[in-house]
Amino acid sequence: MSTELRELLAAIAAGEMSDDVAELVLRGLAEPSPAREQAPAGEPEPEPGPGPYPLSRGQAALWAIHADNPRASSYNLPLGLWLGDGVDPGRLAEALAAVVRRHPGLRIAVRLGAGGPEQEITDRPAEVTRLDLRHVTDGEFAVRLRNLISRPFDLEHDALHRMWLVAAPGGGTLLLLVFHHLITDGVSSHLLLRDIVACHEALAAGRQLPAAEPAAPYAEFVRWQRAMLAGPEAREHRAWWLDRLTGASTAPVLEAIADRPRRAPAAHDEGAMVQLRLSEATWSAVRDTARAARLTPFSVVLGAFAALLHRHSGHRDISVMVPTDGRPSQRFDRTVGYLINPVVLRLDCDPGRSFTALMDAVHARMAEAEDHAAYPFASVVDDLRRTSDAGAGFDIGFYMQQGVGGDQDMAAGQTVFRDALDLTQEGENDLVVEVVVRGPGALVYVKYDPARFDRSTAERLAEHYRLLLEAVTADPSRRVGDVELATAAERGAVERANATRRERPRDVTAAGLVLRQAERTPERTAVADAEESLTYAGLAGRTHALTRALTGRGVRPGDVVGVLVGRRAALVVTLLAIQAAGAAYVPLDPDFPAARLAHIATDAGLAAVVLDPDLAGRLPEGTPGVRIPLTGRETAAPAAPVARRDGDLAYVLYTSGSTGEPKGVEVSHGNLVNLLDSTADSPGCAEGDTLLAVTTAGFDISGLELLLPLTRGATVRIAPSEALRDGFALAELIGASGATIVQATPATWEMLLHAGWTGRVRRILCGGEAMTPELAGRLLDRCDELWNMYGPTETTIWSSAQRVRRNAPVTVGTPIANTTFRTAGPGGAPVPFGAVGELLIGGDGVALGYRGRPELTAERFVEDPATGERLYRTGDLARWTPTGEMLVLGRADRQVKLRGHRIELGEVEAAVRSTGEVGDVRVVVREELAGHPQLVAFVTGGADAASAVRRIADRLPDYMVPSRTVALERFPLTPNAKVDTGPLTALPLDELVRRFGHGGGPAAGPVAGPAAAAPARPAAHAGDLVTWLRETTAGVAGVPAQNIPVDRPLGEAGFDSIGFTRLAVALRERFGIPVRPTVFYAHPDLTSLAAHLREAHPGAFTPAAPSPSAAVVSVAQAGAPAPSAAADGYPPVAIVGIGGRLPSSAGLEEFWEHLAVGRDLTRPYPLERGFSDRVFPERFRGSYVDDVDAFDAQLFRISPREAAQMDPQQRLLLHAAHEAVLDSGQVPAALAGSRTGVFVGLSGADYLSLLGPGSPEMGDHFLIGNVASIAANRISYVFDLHGPSAVFDTACSSSLVAVHRAARALQQGDCELALAGGANLLLSPHGFTGLRRAGMLSPDGRCKTFDERADGYGRGEGVVLLALKLLDRALADGDPVHGVLIGSAENHGGHTHSLTVPNPQAQREVVLAAHRAAAVAPDTIGYIEAHGTGTPLGDPIEIDALKEAFGRLYGDWGIPVAPARTGVGSVKTNIGHLEAAAGVAGIVKVLLAMRHRTLPGLVDLRATNPEIDLSGSPFRIQSGRQAWETPDGAPARAGVSSFGMGGSNVHVVVEEAGKR
Questions:
Q1: Which of the following is catalytic: 1292, 1300, 1343, 1547?
Q2: In terms of domain of life, where is this protein from (predicted)?
Q3: Is 349 one of the catalytic residues?
Q4: pLDDT 10s digits, 936-964
């Protein structure tokens, strides 16, 4: 931006120039004139001739994104404009066509040429589609528009713009334009709208079209950019951006504010947004604030967004991607195309600075960035990834733009468009805020990736953005960190959660509460262990005796006494006696190393130690404290009570310390009594309860187990030590103890469940570490109440107790009594409601501090400056949920929870360093085995440094000793040269050793420790793979293979994100493996890439020589089941008979002839049906059976009168049953009284809808004859069959569900023979009209399955029943066998986007289940009869589900995917969709194809749907007829799918007859 223009804009913003004058001056600056336009250096370059030309750098980046995910629609730009009154849609369509002709850039096609992606202008004519949606509701109208907008583009074959004129509900007409971003941007959209208006006005007035505004062609911009990038200007820009953005990223901010982490590269398949309207007053305040600061409103709104990100994330380093128009000179001002170029503004959001200062910083950063905005954003990112950070990325954006509609950016007073719909691009980034000025106000769109954000989070961000704008415009001098960001409702939720104040016992000890309870219930059982049981009276007597012994040995009030006692009743006696003597206890865990026990005793300053005699040797000589052994079971009368206050010390519990030594937490009597009093009510403990204590005394939660029941007259049963580590023993103990309450850590509950515990406990308490939703679901099946407990030791055991409900989020809930929660940022300031902050806990549970550590106490125990309340800084990261519950997310420091134990990783590292045998150490938590996290130590210093870790076991408890140690030569570093623990946590160990180990080889660096693994061996033929990769890379780069380095980054060979995308495509095509371009940044050289690919895709590079997997293939092809499959898991079911009617066919052989030659059997509705001429005025196209009214009533002993009132579907089902039985070689009469089942799929009731009230056909048989449920029962009745008899209506999957259920009934012994199938007759126009109105039917009545022309389905008729029998029984009976069902499965898609939207995961799972039941190798499946209804999105979804399912199946069998092994087709291209009878029709086609060993092709397949990607899969589209060949004489096998529109899915596996 020039200085002249920048100063002018500042003057306008400050209000120093009137709008009229400003407009004239701006026009003078913007419009070229002979005086101001600089003459070019030479003659202008001619416009490019015909032929392809390169993409611009920005276009190439969009192409790469599309190539990585062709189904994404995140770069579709929508524009919806309401036509003005009197505008002729036809005339507007002419104007639109003219505009497309006038702007060649709108007609480009993009394809991959020899030198990379390129574009070419086509002569594709403009198409304006008319759409009538007047009949739909407003809600459905919005959904339909969204569906149109989100349709992906095929960059090579589609026009990259789409235009619809939509008749809308209420009578208006909408012009909907959708552009791919490749051909337009914001400025271009305004230019196009202005041209549309101009062309329409000329056509409407009968004038010639106005001359097009002179504009440089887009190809000229591409040439200019390529020249710039090749020259010195690019080097200057590159250096400037690297200087500003090195170390910058949006990832830390997104990780802090998003609901879910990014687990994989962003797909951005779809976006979502929430919309907020800023009032006129708010927007006026924004403009006034900008004017007063001599800035533009942009600086205000972007400054507020940066402040919002800072406040919600806690990060000061904020980077935001902001678009610039990307037009480097005036000659491109009117160029239509993708010229926009984002820049990144990096801002320091110091919470102590004023908003005025932040606005100024935004203005300054934007001005600097615009001076370097000619350098493409994609190049900036590539440069950063090559030079500093391979993961650099910027996924937060901010846009501000003027809205469209009315007379904005068009001729003054235009009447073509009266208003605009609020539409915007969605899904382009993880998070984008867009401010659109509309009239006197503004709209705010918060656009987000639903894979990362919940809608409620986006809504909260939008509301807080409004609050922040209102606050800072009211007082721009306010500090950014001082603005409260919580709505009234959110403040109310926090206040309600913290309204916990209630009365509790004061100045009393836990021992005092227990002894009082003993007076009330002396004879009840108080404590029991494996050897003895104490009543309350016995417990009191033993406690009094030990109290006297303690005081007699010199223990005085205020002393600290150690407790080294095993898990028995005497432990409880000891704790109570110490408190009764006025002292505080310190648990000493017998399992701790002696050195740690000595440290605790010394640090605590123990006056005495009560111990079991057999544990006396655990304390080293010289450890302080008088030894008081527990020798007898004496009782005594009460001694004089010792007065204790709430603030007196109750116990000291030692936890892991970050400085290398454990620290003692001092807990007062008031703290402990508050906990016991509160938890007695919630979760609850009463006199009739028994609590099984399973936690060691050194773990603070044992305090609840050992003391809470005794304050309420309940019983404590102490589990012996040996049961704590044995899930089977513990499971038995839970049952034997009669426990009603059990408290344990998630790790202990997991241990129990893995041990097969199936018992039940009335109340389960789970705490000590995070409870997963999966664990919660399993525990809810084992209890009446499940409680999630949360709290650090420093706030006395538990600070919250939340009852977990099924299908509800697992949170820590709200505070217990007399406790409060707050969230704060790094400086202690409150964070916005819902933002992640450190959890601070206040109230009566906050401990006294750390023993002997005043500095640490002052650091962690702080005072709320607003209320003076004492708070504990937990170090836990947490946030409030919308319902006012607290959700804990992790740690702000390096403390971890492992199996309930709190571990400071710094203490473990300090212990390792103290050995003096390592250079440095980092300890992390890794999860090598899912669900089993463990400590892993990485050490430097020497290849043998790993052995040092073994020697820390004498200093640390077992749970703190790393399970594995890995020796490295060096640690990975961040761009700021700090140790980066991210790779140590996430990368595979082999890769870490290879990249950072000694010698750089895969075997370097020993792996040692308790769970040490042997060093990995180099994969066989690794050199071959590197050679293959080098050849492939050279082919993409267009250079000789020797020019491609194998041990240096590919970036040095000129690869950037575009090149990496092309390389990913090439690898997919050559090796059949999915590779994302981002993998090349993580594995930048071919050697590391080869290692990664071998590990990620072990079956893809199997050498041709014989190998174990080849042996598996030979077994599989012989028909043997997989090793993991049970041989009798799915008893095979024979198809012994077929009967029925199929379209235009007198029998099965005629039907096969139609299929074999590829006939389309659809035709106009046959009016020769008697009623058709009066009810079918429109002859709907479909496929129809002949002689639909033919029925031999006498054969079935039905009167003609009754037959006339029967639904023809029921009539033809009787005939189908008769024919199927005859086809099986039996006489129907012979089945009388047999256990033969009938399973019928039936949906429609067209015949019923034809007969209105008073119709002569409606007699006494009418109701029974037209109730669908009677159809199966009638067959059973007529033939006297005594097996199950049922009708299934799951819409399109009905008949295949019936077949599946019949097979299951046979296998379970419910019947001996089964008739299964379905019927579908089209006897009424209502179904056609309803389906057409719903947009489901193809306009020409044909199913164009897998074709790019797919536009809905055509309907068809059919009635088919199969006779089924268990194969072994059929063979024994000598029955004919047409084919064999060897696997089947059924499921439902659950809750999806809407009732009729398919669930691809459910489709995948049903296919997977059926084929796993079949237990045959996937490469023996020669054909899949797909559901294939012929919809543009449904077909690709089905193919993707098949790909995923078969990918897993090939993985199950350990064999490489066999490309094009399996054909995929659908009989629907021949006969349309038979709806309820579709599935059984698919089986008939498969049986006939097996009989003739021929696979029919799809009818009239012209071009495959571009959304169907078969790469890396075993599938091919069965486009034509071919012989069905099987390897090595194996039987022909096929899968058949049928998916109901309501979500009911079924798949069966069919095998050729005679092969078993």
A1: 1292
A2: Bacteria
A3: no
A4: 888 887 656 666 777 787 778 877 888 77
